[in-house]
Write a structure and sequence with these properties.
It is a single chain. With 172 residues, this protein is an alpha/beta fold. It is 28% helix and 17% strand. It has helices at residues 24-29, 40-46, 90-100, 110-117, 156-171; strands at 15-21, 67-73, 104-107, 128-134, 137-141. It has a 5-stranded mixed β-sheet. The termini are far apart. 37% of the residues are buried.
């Protein structure tokens, strides 16, 4: 089977954004965060990570900024509530982290973090830095940029991540 969206990964990345699964819209477009109600691209610009609002089709260009993209679920697309436990590819993500060793893996929702950790929806998760690390890689959880999660939106964790991104970028 083929991945719904290709990983955008390389050595020496500062950030790797990891969603749960591509939306149906993203799968059809062949691009990450392609649904018009998704705030991913506008938020990257709002917090200063990108100099302009990029289009979803430019997702591969993030590598130039030392940023990668992946999803925890690679073989199916759709909303989080439609995913089955067997859809989550935790070992694949673990192998990617071990191979590329990004500084920070950024989960773009609490649901993605729960999926990675094998937690239930009842398990509490906080935005921001997580206690777990894997070798040199740290983990950060953001409010989902999905339009469906707008009621939980908070720009502050995104800005905190951007501040750390620029600290890391300056140190390279």
């Amino acid at each position: 089977m083929n991945d719904v969206l290709p990983d955008v990964l390389a050595q020496d990345l500062i950030l790797v954004f990891c969603g749960t699964a591509a939306s149906e819209t993203s799968a059809r477009a062949g691009a990450y965060y392609a649904k018009s109600s998704n705030a991913f691209w506008s938020t990257l610009h709002a917090v200063g990570i990108t100099s302009r609002k990029m289009n979803p089709g430019e997702f591969r260009d993030l590598l130039e900024l030392k940023i990668g993209l992946t999803d925890l679920v690679k073989l199916v697309s759709g909303s989080d509530h439609n995913l089955k436990q067997g859809d989550f590819q935790r070992k694949r993500l673990l192998n990617c982290i071990n191979r590329y060793q990004p500084r920070i893996v950024v989960f773009t929702s609490k649901a993605a973090w729960r999926g990675w950790q094998g937690l239930s929806s009842r398990d509490g998760v906080s935005y921001g830095w997580q206690d777990e690390t894997l070798n040199q890689t740290r983990f950060f959880v953001l409010p989902s940029p999905s339009g469906a999660a707008r009621g939980y939106w908070d720009l502050k964790p995104w800005q905190a991540l951007a501040d750390e991104y620029f600290r890391c970028l300056a140190a390279t």
